[in-house]
Amino acid sequence: MWIWGSFIFLIIIFLALDLGVFNRKDHVIRTREAAIWTSVWVSVAMGFSGVIYWLFQSGLIENPTGLTPGNAVLKYITGYLIELSLSIDNVFVIAVIFSSFAIPAKYQHRVLFWGILGAIVFRAIMIVFGVALINKFEWIIYVFGVFLLYTAYKMLKSDAEDYKPKESFVFKQVKKIYPLTTAMDGHKFFIRRMGIKAATPLFVALIVIELTDILFALDSIPAILAITSDPFIVFSSNILAILGLRSMYFLISRMLAKFRYIHYSLVVILAFVGLKMLFSHFLHLEEWVSLTVILVALLGGIAASLLKPEKTELD
Protein backbone atom coordinates (compact mmCIF):
# COMPACT_ATOMS: atom_id res chain seq x y z
CA MET A 1 0.00 0.00 0.00
CA TRP A 2 2.95 2.35 0.54
CA ILE A 3 3.47 2.42 -3.23
CA TRP A 4 -0.08 3.69 -3.76
CA GLY A 5 0.28 6.14 -0.90
CA SER A 6 3.56 7.47 -2.29
CA PHE A 7 2.08 7.94 -5.75
CA ILE A 8 -0.98 9.79 -4.42
CA PHE A 9 1.28 11.95 -2.22
CA LEU A 10 3.37 12.79 -5.30
CA ILE A 11 0.24 13.86 -7.18
CA ILE A 12 -0.77 16.09 -4.26
CA ILE A 13 2.71 17.70 -4.31
CA PHE A 14 2.39 18.34 -8.07
CA LEU A 15 -1.02 19.96 -7.63
CA ALA A 16 0.12 22.08 -4.67
CA LEU A 17 3.13 23.36 -6.62
CA ASP A 18 0.96 24.05 -9.65
CA LEU A 19 -1.64 26.27 -7.99
CA GLY A 20 0.26 27.41 -4.90
CA VAL A 21 3.59 28.32 -6.53
CA PHE A 22 3.73 28.43 -10.32
CA ASN A 23 0.19 29.72 -10.89
CA ARG A 24 -0.49 31.53 -7.61
CA LYS A 25 -1.37 34.68 -9.52
CA ASP A 26 -4.13 34.55 -12.12
CA HIS A 27 -2.75 35.17 -15.60
CA VAL A 28 -3.38 34.28 -19.22
CA ILE A 29 -1.57 31.08 -20.19
CA ARG A 30 0.28 31.83 -23.42
CA THR A 31 1.15 29.22 -26.04
CA ARG A 32 4.86 29.20 -25.11
CA GLU A 33 4.13 28.64 -21.42
CA ALA A 34 1.58 25.93 -22.27
CA ALA A 35 4.11 24.20 -24.56
CA ILE A 36 6.73 24.18 -21.80
CA TRP A 37 4.33 22.72 -19.23
CA THR A 38 2.98 20.17 -21.69
CA SER A 39 6.56 19.04 -22.30
CA VAL A 40 7.13 18.84 -18.54
CA TRP A 41 4.03 16.71 -17.91
CA VAL A 42 4.76 14.38 -20.84
CA SER A 43 8.37 14.02 -19.64
CA VAL A 44 7.18 13.20 -16.12
CA ALA A 45 4.75 10.60 -17.48
CA MET A 46 7.36 9.02 -19.74
CA GLY A 47 9.93 9.09 -16.94
CA PHE A 48 7.45 7.28 -14.69
CA SER A 49 7.69 4.29 -17.04
CA GLY A 50 11.13 3.73 -15.45
CA VAL A 51 9.43 3.59 -12.04
CA ILE A 52 6.92 1.07 -13.43
CA TYR A 53 9.80 -1.12 -14.67
CA TRP A 54 11.57 -0.91 -11.31
CA LEU A 55 8.42 -1.73 -9.32
CA PHE A 56 7.60 -4.82 -11.38
CA GLN A 57 11.21 -5.98 -11.52
CA SER A 58 11.76 -5.65 -7.78
CA GLY A 59 8.40 -7.16 -6.84
CA LEU A 60 7.60 -4.20 -4.59
CA ILE A 61 4.07 -4.00 -5.98
CA GLU A 62 1.37 -6.63 -6.36
CA ASN A 63 1.30 -8.17 -9.82
CA PRO A 64 -2.10 -9.87 -10.11
CA THR A 65 -1.87 -10.24 -13.90
CA GLY A 66 1.68 -11.65 -13.89
CA LEU A 67 3.27 -8.98 -16.06
CA THR A 68 6.97 -8.91 -16.87
CA PRO A 69 8.68 -5.53 -16.25
CA GLY A 70 9.03 -4.85 -19.99
CA ASN A 71 5.41 -5.73 -20.73
CA ALA A 72 4.23 -3.61 -17.80
CA VAL A 73 6.04 -0.59 -19.27
CA LEU A 74 4.49 -1.15 -22.71
CA LYS A 75 1.02 -1.41 -21.19
CA TYR A 76 1.59 1.72 -19.14
CA ILE A 77 2.73 3.77 -22.16
CA THR A 78 -0.13 2.42 -24.30
CA GLY A 79 -2.68 3.28 -21.61
CA TYR A 80 -1.18 6.74 -21.20
CA LEU A 81 -1.34 7.44 -24.95
CA ILE A 82 -4.95 6.23 -25.14
CA GLU A 83 -6.01 8.57 -22.34
CA LEU A 84 -4.00 11.45 -23.80
CA SER A 85 -5.50 10.99 -27.26
CA LEU A 86 -9.07 10.68 -26.00
CA SER A 87 -8.52 13.90 -24.02
CA ILE A 88 -8.38 15.80 -27.30
CA ASP A 89 -12.17 15.63 -27.62
CA ASN A 90 -12.40 16.75 -24.00
CA VAL A 91 -10.28 19.80 -24.87
CA PHE A 92 -12.75 20.86 -27.55
CA VAL A 93 -15.72 20.56 -25.17
CA ILE A 94 -13.88 22.55 -22.47
CA ALA A 95 -13.23 25.32 -25.02
CA VAL A 96 -16.95 25.42 -25.88
CA ILE A 97 -17.90 25.57 -22.18
CA PHE A 98 -15.51 28.46 -21.47
CA SER A 99 -16.80 30.33 -24.49
CA SER A 100 -20.44 29.72 -23.62
CA PHE A 101 -20.07 31.05 -20.06
CA ALA A 102 -17.70 33.86 -21.13
CA ILE A 103 -14.93 32.78 -18.75
CA PRO A 104 -11.99 35.25 -18.95
CA ALA A 105 -8.76 33.63 -20.14
CA LYS A 106 -6.89 34.60 -16.95
CA TYR A 107 -9.26 32.52 -14.76
CA GLN A 108 -9.50 29.44 -16.97
CA HIS A 109 -6.48 27.71 -15.41
CA ARG A 110 -7.99 27.95 -11.91
CA VAL A 111 -11.28 26.44 -13.08
CA LEU A 112 -9.39 23.63 -14.81
CA PHE A 113 -7.27 23.02 -11.70
CA TRP A 114 -10.29 22.28 -9.52
CA GLY A 115 -11.91 20.40 -12.38
CA ILE A 116 -8.86 18.14 -12.68
CA LEU A 117 -8.77 17.61 -8.92
CA GLY A 118 -12.37 16.40 -8.96
CA ALA A 119 -11.70 14.28 -12.06
CA ILE A 120 -8.87 12.46 -10.25
CA VAL A 121 -11.17 11.48 -7.39
CA PHE A 122 -14.03 10.34 -9.64
CA ARG A 123 -11.72 8.42 -11.98
CA ALA A 124 -10.04 6.66 -9.06
CA ILE A 125 -13.46 5.42 -7.93
CA MET A 126 -14.42 4.33 -11.45
CA ILE A 127 -11.09 2.53 -11.97
CA VAL A 128 -11.48 0.58 -8.72
CA PHE A 129 -14.99 -0.55 -9.70
CA GLY A 130 -13.97 -1.24 -13.31
CA VAL A 131 -11.03 -3.45 -12.33
CA ALA A 132 -13.15 -5.22 -9.72
CA LEU A 133 -15.87 -5.94 -12.29
CA ILE A 134 -13.43 -7.36 -14.83
CA ASN A 135 -11.69 -9.52 -12.22
CA LYS A 136 -14.97 -10.87 -10.84
CA PHE A 137 -17.05 -11.11 -14.01
CA GLU A 138 -14.93 -11.88 -17.07
CA TRP A 139 -17.94 -11.44 -19.37
CA ILE A 140 -18.09 -7.72 -18.48
CA ILE A 141 -15.21 -7.17 -20.89
CA TYR A 142 -17.65 -7.88 -23.75
CA VAL A 143 -20.03 -5.24 -22.39
CA PHE A 144 -17.19 -2.72 -22.31
CA GLY A 145 -16.19 -3.71 -25.85
CA VAL A 146 -19.68 -3.17 -27.25
CA PHE A 147 -19.94 0.13 -25.38
CA LEU A 148 -16.69 1.39 -26.90
CA LEU A 149 -17.81 0.40 -30.41
CA TYR A 150 -21.10 2.23 -29.84
CA THR A 151 -19.18 5.28 -28.57
CA ALA A 152 -16.95 5.20 -31.67
CA TYR A 153 -20.07 5.10 -33.86
CA LYS A 154 -21.64 8.04 -32.01
CA MET A 155 -18.41 9.99 -32.27
CA LEU A 156 -18.29 9.32 -36.02
CA LYS A 157 -21.84 10.57 -36.53
CA SER A 158 -21.92 13.42 -34.04
CA ASP A 159 -21.02 17.03 -34.58
CA ALA A 160 -19.24 18.50 -31.56
CA GLU A 161 -20.22 22.00 -32.65
CA ASP A 162 -23.84 21.19 -31.75
CA TYR A 163 -22.91 21.02 -28.06
CA LYS A 164 -24.57 23.87 -26.15
CA PRO A 165 -23.59 23.95 -22.43
CA LYS A 166 -26.40 26.35 -21.45
CA GLU A 167 -28.97 23.90 -22.83
CA SER A 168 -27.44 20.89 -21.08
CA PHE A 169 -29.20 18.91 -18.35
CA VAL A 170 -26.43 19.77 -15.88
CA PHE A 171 -26.79 23.53 -16.31
CA LYS A 172 -30.58 23.38 -15.93
CA GLN A 173 -30.29 21.38 -12.69
CA VAL A 174 -27.66 23.72 -11.21
CA LYS A 175 -29.92 26.64 -12.05
CA LYS A 176 -32.78 25.01 -10.11
CA ILE A 177 -30.65 24.20 -7.05
CA TYR A 178 -28.59 27.37 -6.60
CA PRO A 179 -29.01 31.07 -7.51
CA LEU A 180 -26.80 32.05 -10.44
CA THR A 181 -25.35 35.38 -11.43
CA THR A 182 -23.58 36.61 -14.54
CA ALA A 183 -21.41 38.93 -12.44
CA MET A 184 -17.87 37.95 -11.41
CA ASP A 185 -15.53 39.07 -8.65
CA GLY A 186 -12.02 37.92 -9.56
CA HIS A 187 -11.64 34.14 -9.38
CA LYS A 188 -14.37 33.65 -6.77
CA PHE A 189 -16.84 30.82 -7.36
CA PHE A 190 -19.50 32.48 -5.15
CA ILE A 191 -20.37 36.11 -4.48
CA ARG A 192 -22.99 37.83 -2.36
CA ARG A 193 -25.38 40.25 -4.05
CA MET A 194 -28.22 42.00 -2.18
CA GLY A 195 -27.86 39.55 0.71
CA ILE A 196 -28.08 36.49 -1.57
CA LYS A 197 -25.15 34.14 -2.12
CA ALA A 198 -25.00 33.26 -5.81
CA ALA A 199 -22.78 31.06 -7.97
CA THR A 200 -20.67 32.85 -10.56
CA PRO A 201 -20.12 31.62 -14.13
CA LEU A 202 -16.78 30.18 -12.91
CA PHE A 203 -18.59 27.75 -10.61
CA VAL A 204 -21.16 26.78 -13.25
CA ALA A 205 -18.39 26.14 -15.79
CA LEU A 206 -16.54 24.04 -13.19
CA ILE A 207 -19.59 21.84 -12.51
CA VAL A 208 -20.32 21.36 -16.22
CA ILE A 209 -16.65 20.50 -16.91
CA GLU A 210 -16.57 18.11 -13.94
CA LEU A 211 -19.61 16.13 -15.01
CA THR A 212 -18.57 16.22 -18.66
CA ASP A 213 -15.27 14.63 -17.65
CA ILE A 214 -17.15 11.83 -15.92
CA LEU A 215 -18.92 11.12 -19.22
CA PHE A 216 -15.56 11.07 -21.01
CA ALA A 217 -14.20 8.72 -18.35
CA LEU A 218 -16.93 6.23 -19.29
CA ASP A 219 -15.07 5.91 -22.61
CA SER A 220 -11.43 6.24 -21.58
CA ILE A 221 -11.37 3.93 -18.56
CA PRO A 222 -12.86 0.91 -20.41
CA ALA A 223 -10.39 1.70 -23.21
CA ILE A 224 -7.44 1.41 -20.81
CA LEU A 225 -8.95 -1.71 -19.23
CA ALA A 226 -8.77 -3.25 -22.70
CA ILE A 227 -4.99 -2.94 -22.44
CA THR A 228 -4.55 -4.20 -18.87
CA SER A 229 -6.53 -4.85 -15.72
CA ASP A 230 -3.55 -4.17 -13.46
CA PRO A 231 -4.98 -1.50 -11.12
CA PHE A 232 -1.77 0.47 -10.56
CA ILE A 233 -0.94 0.74 -14.26
CA VAL A 234 -4.51 1.77 -15.10
CA PHE A 235 -4.58 4.36 -12.30
CA SER A 236 -1.12 5.87 -12.83
CA SER A 237 -1.38 6.13 -16.63
CA ASN A 238 -4.86 7.68 -16.39
CA ILE A 239 -4.00 10.19 -13.67
CA LEU A 240 -0.71 11.33 -15.21
CA ALA A 241 -2.49 11.92 -18.53
CA ILE A 242 -5.20 13.93 -16.74
CA LEU A 243 -2.58 16.08 -14.96
CA GLY A 244 -1.26 17.20 -18.34
CA LEU A 245 -4.72 18.02 -19.68
CA ARG A 246 -4.67 21.63 -18.43
CA SER A 247 -1.48 22.65 -20.20
CA MET A 248 -2.51 20.63 -23.26
CA TYR A 249 -5.79 22.56 -23.35
CA PHE A 250 -4.01 25.92 -23.53
CA LEU A 251 -1.60 24.52 -26.12
CA ILE A 252 -3.98 22.91 -28.60
CA SER A 253 -7.37 24.58 -28.02
CA ARG A 254 -6.35 27.36 -30.41
CA MET A 255 -5.19 24.83 -33.01
CA LEU A 256 -8.10 22.38 -32.99
CA ALA A 257 -9.62 23.90 -36.12
CA LYS A 258 -6.44 23.02 -38.03
CA PHE A 259 -6.53 19.36 -36.97
CA ARG A 260 -10.02 18.62 -38.25
CA TYR A 261 -9.26 14.94 -39.03
CA ILE A 262 -8.00 14.12 -35.53
CA HIS A 263 -11.62 13.31 -34.70
CA TYR A 264 -11.43 10.26 -36.98
CA SER A 265 -8.22 9.15 -35.24
CA LEU A 266 -10.17 8.92 -31.98
CA VAL A 267 -12.89 6.91 -33.71
CA VAL A 268 -10.26 4.43 -34.94
CA ILE A 269 -8.68 4.15 -31.48
CA LEU A 270 -12.01 3.54 -29.73
CA ALA A 271 -13.10 1.02 -32.37
CA PHE A 272 -9.76 -0.80 -32.11
CA VAL A 273 -9.82 -1.18 -28.33
CA GLY A 274 -13.50 -2.14 -28.47
CA LEU A 275 -12.75 -4.95 -30.94
CA LYS A 276 -9.73 -5.97 -28.87
CA MET A 277 -12.02 -6.42 -25.87
CA LEU A 278 -14.58 -8.44 -27.84
CA PHE A 279 -11.92 -10.82 -29.19
CA SER A 280 -9.69 -10.83 -26.10
CA HIS A 281 -10.41 -14.51 -25.33
CA PHE A 282 -9.82 -15.63 -28.92
CA LEU A 283 -7.04 -13.39 -30.21
CA HIS A 284 -4.00 -12.14 -28.31
CA LEU A 285 -2.20 -9.13 -29.72
CA GLU A 286 1.29 -8.21 -28.63
CA GLU A 287 1.43 -4.89 -26.79
CA TRP A 288 3.59 -3.27 -29.45
CA VAL A 289 0.76 -3.86 -31.96
CA SER A 290 -1.71 -1.85 -29.85
CA LEU A 291 0.86 0.89 -29.34
CA THR A 292 1.57 1.02 -33.09
CA VAL A 293 -2.13 1.23 -34.01
CA ILE A 294 -2.67 4.14 -31.59
CA LEU A 295 0.39 6.06 -32.80
CA VAL A 296 -0.44 5.49 -36.49
CA ALA A 297 -4.05 6.61 -35.93
CA LEU A 298 -2.96 9.82 -34.20
CA LEU A 299 -0.17 10.65 -36.65
CA GLY A 300 -2.45 9.80 -39.58
CA GLY A 301 -5.11 12.25 -38.38
CA ILE A 302 -2.54 15.00 -37.85
CA ALA A 303 -0.90 14.37 -41.25
CA ALA A 304 -4.25 14.35 -43.07
CA SER A 305 -5.22 17.64 -41.39
CA LEU A 306 -1.97 19.30 -42.42
CA LEU A 307 -1.94 17.92 -45.97
CA LYS A 308 -5.60 18.69 -46.60
CA PRO A 309 -6.54 21.88 -44.70
CA GLU A 310 -10.14 23.05 -44.54
CA LYS A 311 -11.20 25.13 -47.52
CA THR A 312 -12.19 28.71 -46.85
CA GLU A 313 -14.94 30.64 -48.62
CA LEU A 314 -12.28 32.28 -50.82
CA ASP A 315 -10.94 28.92 -52.05
Automatic annotation (TrEMBL):
InterPro entries: Integral_membrane_TerC, Integral_membrane_TerC_rswitch. It is a multi-pass membrane protein. One of its GO terms (cellular component) is membrane. It comes from the Bacteria. It is found in: Membrane. The chain crosses the membrane at residues 6-22, 34-56, 76-99, 111-133, 139-156, 202-226, 232-252, 264-282, 288-307. The keyword Metal-binding does not apply. Keywords: Membrane, Transmembrane, Transmembrane helix. PANTHER family: MEMBRANE BOUND PREDICTED REDOX MODULATOR, THYLAKOID MEMBRANE PROTEIN TERC, CHLOROPLASTIC. Belongs to the TerC family. This is Tellurite resistance protein TerC. It comes from Zeaxanthinibacter enoshimensis.
